[in-house]
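Thread: "does anyone have the structure for this chain?"

Original post by V.I.:
We have the sequence but no experimental structure in hand. Need at least a predicted one for the grant figures.
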Amino acid sequence: MSIKKIGILCDERLDFFEYNLFKEIMNIKNIELLFIVCDPQKNRNSFTKKAADFILRCEHKILSYFFEELKPFLKSYDISELSKTPATLRKVSDIDLLLILNPAVSLDKKTIDTPKDGIVRVFFNKYRHIQKYPIAFWEIYERKSSIGFCIEHISKNINRVLLNANLTTQRTITQTRIRVQKESSFYIKKILSDYAKKEFFEKKDDPKVFSLMQQESPKLFHLIGYILKTCVLFTDVAFKRLVLKKYTRFSVAFLKSDWQDAKLYEAKEIKPPPFHFYADPFVWTRDNKTVCFVEDYDYKQNSACISAVEIYEDDSYKIVGEVIKEPFHLSFPFLFEYEKDLYMIVESSADKSIRLYKCINFPTKWRFEKYLMQNVKTADTMVFEHENRWWMLTNMSTPSNDDQAAALFAFYSDSPLSQKWTPHEKNPVVFDSDCGRNAGLLFSENKEIFRVRQRQKFNIYGAAFSIAKILKLSPKDYEEKEISSIQPDFFLKLKATHHMHSNNDITVVDFMRLLRLNP
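Reply from O.Q.:
Generated one for you, tokens below.
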């Protein structure tokens, strides 16, 4: 197999992610790297640029004091640590592929046509704008719910999107930038690794026509505005937590109705015990009992188990208590039947596994049955049967990132108890924090499948949810269409709602308020 020569267009100084990404690419078999130093950007040494650098350094140092794992990301490196003889932009005629991590670099037709297999270019925003320094500034300044990254391939002036993703924003530029660069680095390396194994550059998407907008460079008053907004945000968080003693507290409610006819404002709230919250409800009827299983979070332990609440015909309820407890956090108690037995898959990302439990005595006695997957970072796993296959939909993050709010992965097998699941050809089948994370599974009377999907907002996890009908599901295709969007407005003073389930007789939903932990 021939060696692929890849040119990397970069600056003389590399940030932490560029340096480590390039080192990892250099270790990919059948790849040879040529570092191409681009011309200095205009206004690189402008007063505004220096002010932005200073603000970000200060922000990073402050955050590193509270989050020690952030410290390494402030480092930068000279390109000479990777290559003693970097080339100039004029020497690209003998490379196979050109990689560009800075879309602000202007490309003339000669540069586009020179590499044999074209150019791979990366954008770090949601709308494929040519971003100005720094990455993630406008997303945080404008309080956007997500930040995107797009990896595209350009060849003979034809653009093809290889991957388009949207991730949740964090409270600061530093945290958001680290998140998006961590995630994108994994997929850039994967795309180049796949390319190195082939004699051509694989094109998975149809050609598209794009309009590239130039983002406005932040001015000094924008930078000052960012400082003020960030100070207000953290002051508000601290005041509510330390002075008012208020926390984000989820609760669960139920109503006797099919989900398609549910009037959520008529639901009856289940009051969690003091210093606990309930979330992620799933309802099941078995042995003449109707039980709602929930994530039972204990603020004192900073962890959760699975608890049960029995619902009676007269709309009263009884808290049964803990039914599955492990030394690590559990949530999202997804239920399904197989060969007349009842099973539960719990979210156990803290254990880096997908765990399966079997019901021995409904609803209180469950036995750990097996691992469906191990050494994976997944959340909110659901399994169901469709067209003679068992499907698994789960939210999975890359090994270096803990963001499980965006990427939805599909797998299939001949049995829900299998430990061998085949990945979908288009994984991730959804990569968007506005609709990627699972929030429940619903069925119509004629067995149509509907996925409930979390929607994130700036500084609010699980702010709302939508319901989408799954239109296509096969080893090669996945398609869903939104049919409904639910906002946290069915009770008073709600801040968020992020889950729904129904057994077609009773519908359960969760919601969040800012409350004190005591009754």
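V.I.: this helps a lot. The chain has a mean pLDDT of 89.
O.Q.: and The first helix runs from residue 16 to 26.
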